[in-house]
Write a structure and sequence with these properties.
Helices cover about 15% and strands about 55% of the residues. By secondary structure, the protein is an alpha+beta fold. The chain has a single domain, classed as Lipocalin, CATH 2.40.128.
Length: about 150
């Protein structure tokens, strides 16, 4: 075997070893309802359409997930500058691909309260998209304590 061929073979082997070593860490995490357990600090930002007008919405809350499909929350928000306080509770599910959803036991007036979610960083963070018609809101929740 020529030196040039050996160098190519070594190069290809090195690439194969690198790809095989990196591949397991690139695989998607596996999740379940138990993946999100604990206390999360949540921020909300977006818009709500009222009478054909986009109105800004911001909010903060503390959400607690029990790891068994139940959640509670307490927080405050601003809709076009008007402050409101809120509490809530409900159920949630998380699929093996780390997507999921939640909904409240009692929906807020004029809303469904349903949301889709994606769990990232092995349950340390949740990206949440409320599914209410006439809104465009994105929420992020970061784990702050175990429970």
């Amino acid at each position: 075997m020529k030196l040039r061929d050996r160098a190519k073979l070594f190069g290809y082997s090195a690439i194969a070893v690198f790809v095989l070593a990196v591949a397991p860490s690139a695989n998607a995490q596996s999740c379940s309802t138990a993946t999100i357990k604990g206390v999360f600090a949540r921020t909300d930002n977006g818009w709500v359409i009222q009478n054909g007008v986009a109105i800004p919405l911001t909010g903060i809350s503390v959400m607690t997930f029990d790891g068994n499909g139940k959640w509670t929350a307490v927080g405050s928000g601003k809709l076009n500058g008007a402050v409101s306080e809120s509490t809530g509770s409900g159920t949630y599910t998380v699929n093996p691909d780390c997507t999921g959803s939640y909904e409240p036991d009692v929906a807020p007036p004029g809303r469904t309260g349903k949301a889709n979610l994606v769990v990232v960083l092995e349950g340390k963070e949740i990206h949440i998209l409320p599914m209410d018609p006439g809104s465009s809101i994105l929420c992020n929740a970061k784990k702050v304590a175990d429970r």
